[in-house]
Design brief:
136 residues, alpha+beta, two-stranded antiparallel sheet, single chain
C-alpha cells in the first residue's frame, strides 16, 4: 500500500493485524493524514470539542488505543487529562480501565487563554505483583 508512513524511530512496526476492540479497528497513519494532523495540532479550539456522549464506541476506541500503546517497548503508563465537568469522558475512561489519580488545578490552557482544572486518569501496564492499593 503506497503512502504508508514508516514507524517513528524506536517504535515497533505496525502490527500485521489491525489493533481492534469491539467494533473499533485502528489503522496505520498514511501520508494523506499528515496535513490534517498538522492543522489540528495548531488549532486552539481542538481541545474544546472533545466532549462526546460516552458510548460503547468511544470506550472501544480508547481500549484499542491503550492496547496499541502496550506494544511500545518501555511504555508503562498512558495518561488522560479530562476536564472535571466532562462526565461522559470520565465515564469512558473508567469503563476503559483507567483509574482516577487526582485533580490538577489550573493545569491546561484551553480555548481563549482560560486555564482549566484537569482530572488525571491513567492506565498502568502491569509488570508484576501490585505494589499496594491503587488510588481511589
Amino acid at each position: 500500500m503506497s503512502g504508508i508512513r514508516p514507524p517513528a524511530p524506536g517504535l515497533p512496526p505496525w502490527p500485521e493485524q489491525a489493533p481492534a476492540h469491539g467494533r473499533v479497528a485502528l489503522r496505520r497513519v498514511l501520508d494523506g493524514d499528515v496535513p490534517l494532523a498538522r492543522e489540528l495540532s495548531t488549532d486552539p479550539s481542538v481541545p474544546t470539542v472533545g466532549s462526546l456522549p460516552a458510548r460503547a464506541t468511544e470506550e472501544q476506541a480508547l481500549a484499542a488505543l491503550t492496547a496499541l500503546a502496550w506494544t511500545v517497548p518501555g511504555l508503562y503508563r498512558v495518561a488522560l487529562y479530562i476536564e472535571p465537568w466532562n462526565t461522559p469522558s470520565l465515564r469512558t475512561a473508567e469503563h476503559a480501565g483507567y483509574v482516577r489519580e487526582g485533580l490538577l488545578r489550573s493545569h491546561q490552557e484551553i480555548g481563549r487563554g482560560r486555564r482549566r482544572d484537569m482530572e488525571l486518569w491513567a492506565a498502568v501496564r502491569e509488570t508484576g505483583p501490585a505494589q499496594g492499593p491503587r488510588p481511589a
